[in-house]
Amino acid sequence: GNSVTQMEGPVTLSEEAFLTINCTYTATGYPSLFWYVQYPGEGLQLLLKATKADDKGSNKGFEATYRKETTSFHLEKGSVQVSDSAVYFCALSSGGYNKLIFGAGTRLAVHP
Amino acid sequence: EPEVTQTPSHQVTQMGQEVILRCVPISNHLYFYWYRQILGQKVEFLVSFYNNEISEKSEIFDDQFSVERPDGSNFTLKIRSTKLEDSAMYFCATEPGQRYGYTFGSGTRLTVV
Fold first, then answer.
1. In chain B, what residues touch A100 (CB-CB under 8 Å)?
2. How many CB atoms are closer than 10 A to CB A82?
3. Which DSSP symbol is given to B85?
């Protein structure tokens, strides 16, 4: 079945460091891929998405490229800020009714 | 920016009691979902709802669960007889079309004691 695997956290970085959070997926067909972010005490917010191979989603300095050949959708940011501290979820949707399948989430902690 | 509104934000209930969690979708959205997140665990799909009927449900969504859109605006999740293991954050999500990208509500934290 469809699944999403994320790198385990927590990821701890200093401010202005480069961020990569790895995400790989298993899916039949042609899924859409998403990154969601959950700030402490809040719900899930869509960070970025890509709907087909080689698409790059980007938002707020974050980027991820849909790589079909490696079944990956790694999240990157060139210079993280303390305010980026949150849990990041990779997700895919596939099939007729667009159910989202989430990875386990990766906690990011950014220190000044 | 339009929001998905969930009420209550936190509910404490005794085991065996019925609870109803409410969601007000964004007005032009047509697809509705419930997800849950047990503390510290991954977000899990419960059910999707389109055109006034369930389109897909997970194994978690057993006979104790039901959903409806009683008045064309609210979208509710009912748990008939709560168990301790139902304690979780429940998220409503909606989208205007398939694969557009969900808008999630801020969640209802359900605590069963």
1. 33, 35, 43, 45, 93, 102
2. 12
3. G
Cβ pair A103:B42 closer than 8 A? yes
In this complex, the residue of A89, A98, A102 whose CB is nearest that of residue B98 is A98
Residue B33 burial (CB count, 10 A): 27
Query: Over the stretch A34-88, which tens digit does the pLDDT of each residue have?
Result: 999 999 878 899 999 998 999 999 999 999 999 999 999 999 999 999 999 999 9
From B31, B42, B91, residue closest to A43, measured CB to CB:
B91
- Among A95, A85, A109, A105, smallest CA distance to A36 is for A105
